């Protein structure tokens, strides 16, 4: 099969769970004899306004051709995340389809560079689309699937509720969806300058129209996608709640590229070593982890190790880690790491902490930890809840609750035997090759659906 695999970003510009997933899926598809092209988004940060807003850049990564639809950020706009009216971007995707002539499109993650164009072009070309919910922004205009008060949201999309949530989160004002929609606010908003109070007012005026556009696109997406692949029970639930019929959903855990002899007994000597692995940003719960550690007694025998690229993180979050490291000798920030260092990282810790503060669909760090026999402490929301068995191979704590997380860390630090017990109960994830074999079956099924439709 000729397969176009699309995602928000890809190696080497960005490296996270989504990119790891796309990498091994593409490699194993090629092993099956498929012809794979990866297409993703990208940003040009040089700020040259005279350049086109959208351009395409081709390269190769580990033997697979990668096409990037690059956005000139100096010409970007908030509406890029909500509307499908960019003819320049659409033309790039149309030319890419004409060049690749895919037999199926597999959409993993999406962002402004993919907004609407991939599915629309595929539909016009008679090409089936299979999509995952690896990121919640397909079913959340704000992105993380959190309500205006930071609590996990599993509700169905609703124009008034979603707009009120965005208005409170982005502009600091309560829900004014109906009054703003009744007024010619969109046209007025376009004339207001960006930045400061006027910028917040501009966003408030434009949001109702953008949210309406987002919901309209979601309805089109539900129809255009032949099959949705849910990587977790939480993702399946979110799709069902938002109107995707169960007949179009296939549940398939993504698995991992497994290594031999990962599970091992842990030494009882020394303090319990906790680890955080990922991008140092707010949505990953780093601020809450820092606060939780600060609540620990200074004489608690434990260590906290951070691994993550500070250059792709949020500056204030990175600064909070560095300040914690400077004030507490039990804390160490190791910085960025390469993919071939992953095994040694998990070999060096006793417990992985995943305090995510968004709908983390199927965190690969949890699969990586389980493959190494490492138990997990994670937020009780989204896919983390689907992966971690509370009090069996890990512990679940309320999202964003630093006090609860601190108590959990303190409990494990005081009882290393409990860590050993959790580690013994860890089950390794499935082999990624099994998942890719299922994906190929879904692709064939989607092609058959389109051919019979």
Cα gyration radius (Å): 22 Å
State the end-to-end distance: 20 Å
Give the SSE string: EHEEEHEHEHHHHEHEEHEHEHEHEHEHHH
Per CATH, the class of the largest domain reads: Alpha Beta
Number of helices: 16
CATH fold-level assignment of the largest domain: Rossmann fold
Q: What is the number of E strands?
A: 14
Going across the biggest sheet, name each strand in turn.
3-4-2-1-5-6-7-8
- The total tally of domains equals 2
Structural class: alpha/beta
* DSSP helix fraction: 40-55%
In CATH, the homologous superfamily of the largest domain goes by the name Glycogen Phosphorylase B
Overall pLDDT metric: 88
What percent strand? Answer: 15-25%
* Most strands sheet: 8 strands, mixed
Describe the model.
It is a single chain. This protein is of the alpha/beta class. It folds into 2 domains: 216 residues, Glycogen Phosphorylase B (Rossmann fold, 3-Layer(aba) Sandwich); 153 residues, Glycogen Phosphorylase B (Rossmann fold, 3-Layer(aba) Sandwich). Helix content is 41%, strand content 17%. It contains 16 helices and 14 strands. Strands 3-4-2-1-5-6-7-8 form an 8-stranded mixed sheet, with helices on both faces. The protein has a 6-stranded parallel sheet with strand order 11-10-9-12-13-14, sandwiched between helices. Helix 4 packs antiparallel against helix 7, helix 9 runs parallel beside helix 10 and helix 9 crosses helix 14. About 1% of the residues have low confidence.
């Amino acid at each position: 099969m000729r397969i176009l695999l699309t995602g928000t970003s890809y190696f080497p510009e960005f490296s996270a769970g989504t990119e790891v997933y796309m990498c091994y899926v593409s490699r194993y598809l090629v092993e099956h004899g498929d012809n794979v092209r990866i297409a993703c988004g990208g940003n040009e940060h040089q700020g040259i306004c005279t350049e086109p807003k959208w351009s395409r850049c081709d390269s190769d990564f580990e033997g697979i051709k990668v096409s990037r639809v690059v956005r000139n950020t100096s010409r970007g706009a908030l509406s890029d995340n909500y509307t499908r009216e960019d003819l320049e971007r659409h033309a790039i995707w149309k030319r890419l389809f004409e060049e690749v002539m895919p037999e199926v499109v597999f959409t993993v993650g999406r962002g402004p560079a993919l907004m609407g164009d991939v599915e629309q072009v595929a539909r016009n070309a008679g090409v089936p689309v299979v999509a995952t919910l690896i990121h919640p922004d397909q079913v959340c205009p704000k992105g993380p699937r959190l309500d205006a008060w930071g609590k996990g949201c599993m509700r169905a999309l609703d124009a008034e509720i979603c707009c009120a949530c965005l208005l409170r989160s982005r502009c600091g004002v309560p829900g004014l969806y109906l009054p703003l929609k009744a007024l010619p606010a969109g046209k007025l908003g376009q004339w207001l300058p960006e930045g400061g109070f006027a910028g917040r007012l501009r966003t408030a005026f434009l949001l109702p129209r953008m949210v309406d556009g987002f919901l309209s696109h979601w309805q089109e997406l539900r129809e255009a996608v032949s099959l949705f692949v849910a990587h977790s029970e939480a993702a399946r639930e979110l799709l069902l709640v938002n109107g995707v019929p169960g007949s179009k959903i296939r549940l398939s855990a993504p698995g991992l590229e497994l290594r031999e002899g990962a599970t091992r007994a842990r030494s009882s000597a020394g303090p319990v070593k906790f680890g955080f692995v990922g991008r140092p940003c707010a949505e990953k719960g780093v601020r809450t982890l820092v606060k939780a550690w600060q609540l620990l007694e200074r004489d608690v025998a434990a260590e906290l190790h951070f691994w993550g690229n500070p250059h792709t993180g949020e500056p204030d979050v990175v600064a909070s880690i560095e300040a914690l490291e400077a004030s507490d000798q039990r804390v160490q920030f190791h910085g960025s790491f390469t993919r071939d260092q992953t095994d040694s990282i998990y070999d060096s810790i006793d417990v992985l902490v995943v305090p995510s503060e968004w709908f983390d669909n199927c965190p690969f760090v949890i699969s990586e930890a389980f493959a190494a026999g490492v138990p997990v402490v994670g937020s009780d929301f989204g896919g983390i809840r689907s992966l971690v068995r509370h009090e069996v191979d890990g512990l679940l704590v309320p999202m964003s609750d630093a006090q609860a997380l601190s108590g959990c860390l303190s409990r494990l630090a005081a009882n290393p035997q409990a860590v050993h017990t959790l580690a013994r109960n860890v089950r390794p994830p499935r082999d990624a090759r099994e998942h890719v074999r299922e994906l190929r079956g879904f692709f064939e099924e989607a092609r058959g659906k389109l051919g019979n439709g």
